[in-house]
Amino acid sequence: MKKIEERWEEKMREVVKRGTQLLLVANPERVLLMMDCTKENPLYSELYKQTKQLEKQLQKEIQPFYQIRECQVKGLGDGYAVLLTLGDKISDCIGQLFQEDLMKGMLANCIADQLLFSMEERMQPELIQIAKKEGSGLAARKEAPLDFRVEDVLAVMGKEIPVTVTSGGMLKPEKSMLFFFEKTKDTSCYRIGHDCKNCTKKNCNYAKK
Q1: Where are the domains of the chain?
Q2: Average pLDDT of 181-193?
């Protein structure tokens, strides 16, 4: 048992990324899409410029961290738990922008979401590489809190993580995500993307495209 734990700890050091090691980018077009603002909107050009300016401001506030860990979770089985966060500072910055100007606050919130999605996209190739090295495929992607309790998966991530869970079962900092990817012996299967069919979000602009 001790040897297995040591192997897992060694793997954790290999796949944990912290601080400024991640270059995250928010696509202005996708940010405006989230706000249901198309190029036909007379304000599109101005909001596009504001988005670029606000991203520069928010880039100074992010504290990106992600961790991938091989684990076994009751009710989910064997797989890989993945935790991503932008840190606390960016939420404080967004709150201040909302107080100053509602539109800026809305733009900043969407930009932060896009930066988090950017982190997810950069994580995915590494997750596939880890699974391949272990001789495994990825059968399914589970998302919190829809498919599992946050507490159950966060508990296996170790103590030295900058994310906690609220009494309401939500991740803190707010701009964080938690996934569980189920293992399979089929090494041709790597289901890592979000499945819109199983999503509970209504009227999503991404799903419309």
Answers
A1: 2-208
A2: 90
